[in-house]
Amino acid sequence: MNANLWSELVISALLLLSGVLVLLAAMGLWRLPDFFTRMHAPALASTLAAWSVTLASIVYFSVREGTLVLHVWLIIIVLAITAPVSAMVLSRVGLFRGRRSGAELPAPLSQPKD
Predict the structure, then answer these.
(1) Helix (H), strand (E), coil (C) string for the chain
(2) On the CB side of 49, how many CA atoms lie within 13 Å of its CA?
(3) pTM of the predicted protein model
(4) Which among 54, 60, 44, 49 is positioned nearest to 22, based on CA atoms?
(5) pLDDT tens, 15-66?
(6) Burial bucket for residue 5 (CB in 10 Å: 0-12, 13-18, 19+)
(7) Please, are residues 72 and 61 in contact by the beta-carbon 8 Å criterion?
């Protein structure tokens, strides 16, 4: 077997893996009971799926160019920085809205001093 066939098999496997992970994330989003648990499953699975697509892109462009191509890493670096920040902001908004609606949620970590 030549190198192109092996690279196509690796790329296909990585892309199929990312599709399965996104499907699992969607199932978790559909099946989990509340906002905070719904945030958890898609965040983990979609992050792993993004890594899988990034690795597939690195293999594809490296085989096509004939040299190691790492410019695709910039995408995953940006995702690695922004995904936790957006998850934190969404969870804080969920806590804020839950507290305003009177739902039973954990108390804030620090109470303002009078």
Answers:
(1) CCHHHHHHHHHHHHHHHHHHHHHHHHHHHHHCCCHHHHHHHHHHHHHHHHHHHHHHHHHHHHHHHCCCCCCCHHHHHHHHHHHHHHHHHHHHHHHHHHHHHCCCCCCCCCCCCC
(2) 17
(3) 0.75
(4) 49
(5) 999 999 999 888 888 888 888 888 877 777 778 888 999 999 999 999 998 8
(6) exposed
(7) yes
